[in-house]
Each structure stands twice: as structure tokens, then as C-alpha cells.
Specification:
Length: about 120
């Protein structure tokens, strides 16, 4: 297999050519070799923070979807991607998931308290 490096301009000039067969044939070992050969291609996966999964945190807390949604003031049906571990791009929600993961009891207690009025 031959891997060629291209500039972004060169890649854009190919008008979206994508060799799906070549891509699908890559093994984890191939990808690791490419990353080792050029660390700028991608960071080592060991250094990446794991994406928190709302489903895993909900299960860890022993809550149903409806219970967690109520705690977070969410509508269950409006967040389908979060319940199955996709779409966690909202920075505020990611921060809340980290807090729930690291400090579940205090976080749940804080969520139970009525919000303070500003002023």
C-alpha cells in the first residue's frame, strides 16, 4: 500500500475523490505506522481524553433516562443522540457530564436545589 501526502490545496483540487476501498483496507497497525511516521497527522490516542458517554454516566448514577433528563431539565425525546453516546458537542453539557462523572453525589444534590435568583 502506498500512502501519499498532499497539501490541502492538492486534496481540494481532486474535487472530493475518496478511495473508499483503500480507506477500508487500512488496519489499526497501518494507522499506527502512519502516525508514528508523522506525529502531526494525529495525536497519540493515549493522550486523548475519553469522550464521556451520557448513557454510561446515567447508568453509573443508577438513573433512568427520564430521571436524568428531569435532573438536567432536558426533554428526553429532544436529545436522542446523547442517550446513545453521539453528538456530545455542547461544551456546557460536556462540562456537566465531567462533574457528574467525578463528583456524582454533590452534583446531583446541587441539581436538586432550586436555582438562586440573580441580584
Amino acid at each position: 500500500m502506498i500512502i501519499t501526502r498532499k497539501t490541502l490545496r492538492q486534496a481540494n483540487a481532486e474535487e472530493g475523490h475518496f478511495d473508499a476501498e483503500k480507506f477500508e483496507s487500512l488496519t489499526d497497525a497501518d494507522i499506527d505506522r502512519m502516525i508514528a511516521g508523522d506525529p502531526e497527522l494525529a495525536p497519540p490516542t493515549q493522550s486523548l481524553a475519553p469522550l464521556l458517554d451520557m448513557r454510561d454516566i446515567r447508568r453509573k448514577l443508577g438513573l433512568t433516562q427520564a430521571q436524568l433528563a428531569k435532573q438536567l431539565s432536558l426533554v428526553v425525546e429532544s436529545w436522542p443522540d446523547y442517550w446513545v453516546g453521539r453528538g456530545q458537542t455542547d461544551p456546557a453539557l460536556r462540562a456537566l457530564l465531567r462533574v457528574l462523572d467525578k463528583l456524582p453525589e454533590p452534583a446531583l444534590r446541587a441539581l436538586d436545589e432550586p436555582p438562586r435568583q440573580a441580584g
